[in-house]
Amino acid sequence: MLDSILTSGDRAMFNPTFGKATVIVPAAGVVLTGTGIPTVKNKKICIVGDEKKVIVPRCSYTSPPNITPGIGTLFIESLAANQKARKVKSKRTAVLLKGTTFIAKFQVTTPAQTRNRSQDSQCYRRNISTNWW
After folding, report:
1. Is the pTM of this model over 0.85?
2. Residue 2: inside a domain
3. How many helices (H) and strands (E) does the chain have?
4. Could you report the per-residue pLDDT of 79-91, keeping only the tens digit for each?
5. Which Pfam families match (predicted)?
6. How far apart are CA 67 and CA 131, in angstroms?
7. How many domains does the chain have?
8. φ, ψ of residue 82 in degrees (nearest 5)
9. Strand-pair partners of 56
10. Is residue 5 part of a domain?
C-alpha cells in the first residue's frame, strides 16, 4: 500500500514517554505547515525540512523520583526512510509521506526537581514517536 503525501493541516503525534520521563504532549498533535508548490485538496504539500518547524516549547514533564515537574522543548529530530519520497519532489526536495514513525527529541530547559535540589541532570531524551494523522 502506498503512503499518503503529508499536507498542511496534517498533525504530528508524539509518544509521551522519553526514557523515565513522561512529557505532557499536545493531545491533538502538532499541525504541519507545508511549503511545497503543488497542492492536494487546496493544501500545500509538505517537503523535507517542513518537519523541522514542528517545535513544541514549554512542555511540562515529570521524571521519578522528582516531585516538581520540569520544562523542555519537544521536536522532531529525524524521519524514517519511508517518510521521504524517493522519486516525488517539489522544489527539488523530497515530498514527505505518512510512513511509519519518526524520532522525537525532548530537550530539558528547566530540570524536574526533588524538594529544593535539581535531580534530573539528563538534558536530552529521545523516543520513537507515533505518527501523522
Report:
1. no
2. no
3. 0, 14
4. 999 999 999 999 9
5. CIS_spike_tip
6. 30
7. 1
8. -80, 10
9. 74
10. no
56-110 confidence digits (pLDDT tens) = 999 999 998 888 999 999 999 999 999 999 999 999 999 999 988 899 999 999 9
Helix, coil or strand: residue 1: coil
Question: 71: which strand partners?
Answer: 60, 110
Residue 104 resides in a domain:
yes
Q: Which domain holds residue 51?
A: 11-128
Spatial distance between the Cα atoms of 43 and 45, rounded to a whole number of angstroms: 6
Beta bridge partners of 30: 12
What does the alpha-carbon distance between residue 11 and residue 129 come to, in Å, rounded to a whole number? 12
Compute the distance between CA of residue 117 and CA of residue 109 in angstroms, rounded to an integer.
Answer: 15
